[in-house]
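Hi team,

As requested, here is the filled-out complex form for the adenosine-5'-triphosphate run. I kept the field names the same as last time so the parser does not choke. Let me know if anything looks off before we queue the next batch.

— J.
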Amino acid sequence: MKRVLIIEPDTRSRNRTQGALESLPCDVQGFEGPADAIRAMMEEMPSLVITRGNEPSEEDLHLLRIARAGHRPVPVLVLADNGNRHGAISYMDAGAYDYVANPSDPNELRATVDEILRLASADEEPGHIAMSEGDHASESQIVGRSPEMIEIFKMIGRVAKSDAAVLIQGESGTGKELVARTIHETSRRAEKPFLAVNCAAIPDTLLESELFGHEKGAFTGATYSRKGKFELSHGGTIFLDEIGDMSLPTQAKILRVLQEHTFERVGGEQTLASDTRIIAATNKSLVKCIEDHQFRVDLFYRLKVVSIFLPALRKRPGDLTLLIDHFVRKYRQQAKVPIRGISQRAQAMLEVQEWTGNVRELENTIQTAVVLNRTGSLECEDFPFLRAAPNAPSFDSGEGSLDRLRDEARKAARVLLMQAGDSTDCAVYRQCVDVMESALVEMALERFEGNQVRASKALGISRNTLRSKMGADVDRGSAAS
Ligand SMILES: Nc1ncnc2c1ncn2[C@@H]1O[C@H](COP(=O)(O)OP(=O)(O)OP(=O)(O)O)[C@@H](O)[C@H]1O
Ligand SMILES: [Mg+2]
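And here is what came back:
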């Protein structure tokens, strides 16, 4: 049986809160202050703590720390009679699960508590996928187990020993820089610098000086001589990112480094020897650049001695689970939040995404979800910007759908009413009803491919009513435009 602790100094309101939760399948215990509740928590951690307060006291903060200290964080719900900005920020910053300003409706409280208890135990359900234990191995560790990535790992192993130039191609965010770094770290150059230069981000006039350095007076503003990246990475590796954006004159100089291992500083006369391995990357098609006379064909072949092509993430779905596990562990360690796993529904949702931004997009998505998560298990709700999995509808069939719709509607209404404040000219009621009506009409027509008779039957309204609602939709559409 789940245990819920309620902390309320006032006996009457404590009884009221307890009463509101009576019908839920949980054991509710009331306490006058945080100190008693903390003692009870030490004996056995509850599933939820509800506390009343406008701003956190020292004791509240202590309670919040204890609630988050265990392997499984205990959500703390704050009921604030005088909700205010400072209180909301302080409680949430201290790790509260939610801060409900001016709670008044016992049904709403019951729905909120029911939802928290459901989410907090999501990882006990059969569909939960647990994350690996232990700390994250390394920031720059490259992970993958798809046949495509295994081939890439083999390639890295093969080329690391040599000094050959490497060209890495692939869409943005597929891990080109990470592969370059891994090659460097596996090579005999590992102790020497790895320097990355983004050729697209530096104006052409400055790129040469960035790469080769310059002598004092070489150009206006060159008030002192300066070493370039080739000199600074001597003995190590230089990573020329976005090489497809490099100008033709600079390309000629890179070609010379590759062929003769020499270069001069801009404005300098002395020829310097280069012992830097070149790894280049691009997300452009260099073949197309060559056709457009934007890229030298001889440099292309020189760079392409070893060529690695990184497939898009959607082409190697076998890596997704491993990458999710990797990033959850990376960010839970950084954010110091104990995330234990992910629900099957959320995992399915991640699996159907296009990931046009590839691994970087996945990484950012997981990072946001880990930081925002409050239950210790990643749920669909933690990924509000992703499209739902087609086989995981957000509402179950029948009764469950309406219950959830009611919950969602309550939440939305609460926000809209808060935004409306004390204003007298708001149309919250009309707006909400309009939104629901037009969603029903639109979906019914879509479901029955425009057949009004079938759509009106399914909605349980007359055809005339349906037509008038369709008219209202058009009116609203044109009024809005
Ligand atoms: N296989 C992988 N394992 C772990 N992390 C990865 C993997 N691939 C990419 N990443 C991470 O994804 C992010 C993007 O990778 P990276 O910067 O190497 O991509 P890129 O191909 O160079 O992108 P762009 O073309 O936009 O520069 C980085 O944080 C990187 O650590
Ligand atoms: Mg990159």
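Two things worth flagging: Residues 391-397, 477-481 have pLDDT under 50 and may be disordered. DSSP finds 19 helices and 15 strands in the chain.

Thanks,
J.
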